[in-house]
Write a structure and sequence with these properties.
- This protein has a domain of 33 residues.
- The chain is built from 3 helices and no strands.
- The longest helix is centred in the first third of the chain and has 28 residues.
- The protein is rod-shaped, with a radius of gyration of 30 Å.
């Protein structure tokens, strides 16, 4: 492979790589990236505690 053909191929790759990389960067700015599991605590513990009080589950634990 000669030097001229190598530079010709590199310039052809650069014609689509740089705009594609720029487009990917711009798109990544507008979409949120989520890492890992959600960190917000939901209110399901309140429903479970309410069910335990209504069904007197706390007295069964205290009797043991």
């Amino acid at each position: 492979m000669t030097r001229e053909t190598l530079f010709k191929q590199a310039s052809q790759i650069g014609k689509w790589f740089l705009p594609a990389a720029a487009l990917l960067y711009v798109v990544s700015l507008f979409f949120p990236w989520v890492y890992g599991p959600p960190t917000a605590v939901d209110d399901s513990w309140k429903m479970a505690l309410h069910a335990a009080v209504v069904q007197h589950w706390q007295s069964a634990v205290c009797q043991k």
